Amino acid sequence: MAGIKRASDGQASAAKRSKQDVLSRDLLEAMEKDELGSHILSLQSQILITSHQAPPSPPATPGLSPEEVHHKASKARDMMAKGIKSQMKTGGARFSYSGVVASPQVFLKLFRLGVDWKKKQLQFDPADFQHTTGTDIATSIRYGRLNVTGKNVTVRWVPNELTFTVTGSYGL
Is the pTM of this model over 0.85? Predict the structure, then answer.
């Protein structure tokens, strides 16, 4: 009887341990190699079972019609121009605008990119940026006019969140 382990000895069986949510560090260290291996396998099988029982993800948004894409891109363009202009104060400084679009097609239309474009960052010189977006991003101040200036305007795209950030600088 000395070779037989009992549950009353403080050693719970692997089957009982797999049903427990959390094992303490002491219990894990006290386990034998075979017991620990069977515990790991049972946890992996539980994870596999629960991953197959996970609720279905929400359905993907249906494709937008070309008219809807054009309308949403136009709206995003106007909001972007207004957001950048609102940051233009006296003198010169940097601006940053973050926006959200309804679908990747809207982003591609907004910046006149091809369907096969897969990068996550764009750089325009200021004149190309205004030409590409089709907006004149400028505001008048007392004795002058503030425009998008600098070396380049950077657009960063985060496709899984459908967000983009436009950064650059402005001045006289």
Answer: no
